[in-house]
Write a structure and sequence with these properties.
The chain is mostly helical and 312 residues long. The protein is 81% helix and 0% strand. The chain is globular, with a radius of gyration of 19 Å. The relative contact order is 0.19.
Length: 312
């Protein structure tokens, strides 16, 4: 158990430090936006580019990891949408918002720092795979469903064009594509530039965790216990189960990679969840769910590490 706490403890301590910094007014919530912009636009792209460009193409884009992880996430999202619209009588837009919170992990800000402690050699490349699944499959699909559910059916060309333009400007996607091109062509950066990219990428994990804590402290939470409990259970239990079942069906990745993928599914949802839901009027619910899921994930992540033996 001490070995597990040595893995999860530093993660949540850094989150707590960020939370305390905002609550004690050392920083204000608006300061967190600058940190988030730095991580998303600079630190994480540098990390992903370095990871993808430094390895052989076949070893970096692991289809035996990508396909089951995508399938498991889609299985959960589809099941949640169907359940919400039938048993819970929710409209498609709300069903898509619920599915977004239950099937897309915070792979970059929380998943990567944990994975790097367990498997430093493969964590960055695995993050690139998760980022591709989330940015190219899960986000476009669920946001398009939310738009359709809000009466945007007649605006599909506009919606799709907006999604494509957003992906084309996404720094993490651009960094992955640039890294893939360098890997395929056998190109290498000059040593000073490569070292600068490495230094920039090394800041991603600690700054991201501090940002998570500060963001949680600045959220305005409204309680809706039933829906919050549903989202928490779906993200921390149903998503890992869906990914686990997908790897049972397609076990080619091997036990170590499949365990790492299920662990990534155990992470809370991405920190921009309330921001994405704001457009549809559900930011209060999603903010409360983000807080509850992040706090609860300390226990579920530790429990998974203990059950799987991944924590040593």
């Amino acid at each position: 158990m001490l070995a597990i706490l040595a893995i999860t403890g530093p993660i949540f301590i850094l989150i707590a430090v960020g939370f305390a910094a905002v609550r004690l007014r050392v920083l204000v919530p608006t300061d967190m936006r600058a940190l988030g912009v730095f991580v998303i636009n600079f630190a994480l792209p540098a990390l992903l580019f370095g990871a993808v460009s430094s390895g052989a193409l076949a070893q970096t884009v692991r289809l035996d990891l990508l396909l089951p992880y995508a399938l498991g996430s889609l299985l959960v999202a589809g099941g949640v949408v169907a359940l919400a619209m039938t048993a819970l009588r929710r409209k498609l837009q709300m069903a898509a918002v619920l599915a977004l919170g239950m099937s897309v992990s915070n792979s970059a800000f929380i998943g990567f720092p944990i994975a790097r402690q367990l498997s430093p050699d493969t964590a960055s490349a695995a993050l690139a795979v998760y980022a591709l699944v989330e940015a190219l499959i899960m986000f476009p699909l669920l946001l398009a469903l939310a738009e359709l559910g809000g009466g945007g059916g007649g605006r599909w060309p506009v919606v799709l064009r907006g999604i494509v333009l957003s992906l084309a400007r996404n720094p993490m996607i651009l960094a992955i594509l640039a890294g893939l091109a360098c890997s395929a062509l056998g190109l290498a950066l000059p040593v000073p530039v490569a070292r600068a990219v490495e230094l920039l990428g090394s800041t991603a994990a600690p700054v991201a965790l501090f940002y998570i804590g500060g963001t949680l402290a600045g959220l305005k939470v409204r309680i809706a216990a039933g829906d919050i409990g549903l989202i928490v259970a779906g993200k921390l239990l149903l998503h890992p189960l869906g990914v686990y079942l997908a790897f049972l069906a397609f076990p080619a990745a091997g036990e170590a990679l499949s365990t790492a993928a299920v662990l990534n599914a155990c992470m809370p949802m991405m920190s921009v969840y309330p921001i994405l839901a704001q457009k549809y009027g559900h930011e209060g619910l999603c903010a409360a769910a983000l807080v509850a899921t992040t706090v609860s994930s300390f226990f579920t992540i530790s429990g998974f590490l203990w059950l799987s033996g991944a924590g040593g």
